[in-house]
Amino acid sequence: MIVLKNVSKIYGKSPQVVALHNVTMEVKKGEFLAVMGPSGSGKSTLLYIIGGLLTPTKGEVLINGVSIYKLNSRERAKLRQEKIGFIFQTFELIPYLTALENVMVPLCFSKIPNSKHEEKAIKALNLVGLTNRASHKPSELSGGEQQRVSIARAIVNDPSILLADEPTGNLDQKTGAEIMHLIKRLNEEKGITVILVTHDPSKARFADKVAVLIDGQIMKIERLRNMGGKSLRDKSGNRKQLLECA
């Protein structure tokens, strides 16, 4: 479903900063991939390139066989609108809109009739357990509730791909775990392909497989041996607690 071929991203000219270097990987339909690595390793750059928000310096990104950076900007925006939902660490809610209105915003750019917008938004809020807070503005919601609103906004258009950039970074441990359980449930019950950027091993354990990114390069892509267990096998065949080391 998602294929990266020799993707690199270089910022600046003198000096150059190499954010990604020849990244090649594949994420299948319905998979949950966690991307781990230290700060500055290129995790967010990778996510934004996959999401069609940041043009790579070289390489190719394919979604369902379509090379997205061969599309023009309007075609790429249409693909994002129809196929991809984004969840950000800082929620990115519009402060003067209610939770319901925030969730409805992406529908304004869709082909869905206006008469259906509120119905769709309420359905999305229901999926994240927040219909009782629909009329509240972000300042009246807790951090966890705000992130649930942002998840509802991300899924209101029924995307096939969900990209999450440190979605629990501004939340306490308990609330962060609740958000991760919600994302995992969407992955399992709705078949949404999830790519999660995180530095936290406890969040990466929700994934089917983990990619470790260091200095802009994929060092490992390993499948978890079991859901909830954490032992991985490195490419030399040795067992290793990769999630604890990333």
Task: State the main characteristics.
246 residues; alpha/beta; Rossmann fold; six-stranded mixed sheet; four-stranded antiparallel sheet; 12 strands; 27% strand; globular
Order the strands across the largest sheet as they lie in space.
6-7-8-3-9-10
Question: Into which percentage range does the β-strand content fall?
Answer: 25-35%
Mean pLDDT: 88
Query: Could you please say which CATH topology applies here?
Result: Rossmann fold
Total number of domains = 1
Radius of gyration: 18 Å
N→C terminal distance: 26 Å
Description:
This protein is α/β, with parallel strands linked by helices and 246 residues long. It has one domain (26-57, 69-245): Rossmann fold (3-Layer(aba) Sandwich). It has eight helices and twelve strands. The chain has helices at 43-50, 73-83, 99-104, 117-127, 143-155, 173-190, 201-204, 242-245; strands spanning 2-11, 17-27, 32-36, 58-63, 66-67, 84-88, 161-165, 193-197, 209-214, 217-223, 232-233, 239-240. The strands form three sheets. The protein has a six-stranded mixed beta sheet with strand order 6-7-8-3-9-10, sandwiched between helices. A hairpin with a 5-residue loop joins strand 1 (2-11) and strand 2 (17-27). Helix 4 (117-127) crosses helix 5 and helix 5 packs parallel to helix 6 (173-190). It is globular and about 50 Å long. The chain starts with a strand and ends with a helix. The model is unreliable at 225-246 (pLDDT under 50).
